[in-house]
Amino acid sequence: MSEKKETTGHLLTVMTIIVWGTTFISTKVLLQSMTPVEILFIRFAIGWIALSLVYPHRLRFKERKQEMYFAAAGLCGITLYYLLENIALMYTFASNVGVIISIAPFFTAVFAHVFLKEERLTFQFFVGFLIAFTGVFLISFNGFSVLKLNPRGDILAVLAAVVWSVYSILTKKIGEFQYNTIQTTRRIFFYGLVFMLPSLKIFQFNPSVVVLIQPTNLFNILFLGLGASALCFVTWNAAVRILGAVKTSVYIYLVPVITIATSIIVLKERITGMAMLGVILTLTGLFISENRITFKTKEGLNNE
């Protein structure tokens, strides 16, 4: 892999994580007048429409069995991940969910090692994971002297982390098909929306147009649909194709860091010494994991 191409992959990942790290503000605002499933379905419907307008070319498969990978990616990365995350928030603290979701890179690394066979891990990766996870823990539980667990919500959050890891592996495989990234992302969105349909009735999908067109709500849903969904899923999938599932996923550790920075700027929240220590540990862990993962190709070459 050329140095320029690898740099592009890292830049795409960082840009994606910066946007995803700020989406909690938009979601928090929208939850005041909309249900989680309403936000979720409308967000990805907007994303699918946007991608269709940007690149209105039909995806023609080289092999029909490849369709199964797209369906699985839509089910895992769109429907199941976001539903599990949102439902988990109904039963446990957001801080609990934030910490548990951050273990997704670990599951991604294990799955990539087992199923892709082209990516292997070193001892330094696990050291970086532990350091970064400690940092995420300090950030998320800042201000809580007692960690309260709710088995139902926390188990759902673990399942969400596992599901996202499966999605990362699937997108790595889809990237090997060499299709246009916008087309592949749009196809994944399509299946995500299809699999989401049964949940609309269960979780009371009844959006109000009057509520939706209010300036604040409209801005935030467009930000989630166009920015966090349409744009960022394209950039994320492109980064996975360039860097691989493991290298890309370790950047998820940065989400709590971005969240804290955004909270200070937008919500005027204060950062404590514990949170600052968490930020430092998270960045340190990310650096160690990112710079110590080796990638073994079919020819046995090191592409790092």
TrEMBL record:
**What does the UniProt keyword field contain?**
Membrane, Transmembrane, Transmembrane helix
Q: Which Pfam families match?
A: EamA
Q: Which SUPFAM superfamilies match?
A: Multidrug resistance efflux transporter EmrE
Cellular component GO terms held in the UniProt record: membrane
Question: Which residue numbers delimit the EamA domain?
Answer: 8-140, 152-288
Tell whether Translocase is among the UniProt keywords.
no
**Bilayer-crossing regions:** 12-31, 37-56, 68-84, 90-116, 123-141, 153-170, 190-213, 219-238, 250-267, 273-289
Q: Does the keyword Mitochondrion apply?
A: no
Please report the record's description of how this protein sits within the membrane: Multi-pass membrane protein
Tell me where it resides: Membrane
So what family is this one in?
Belongs to the EamA transporter family.
The protein's name? Putative amino-acid metabolite efflux pump
Underlying gene: eamA
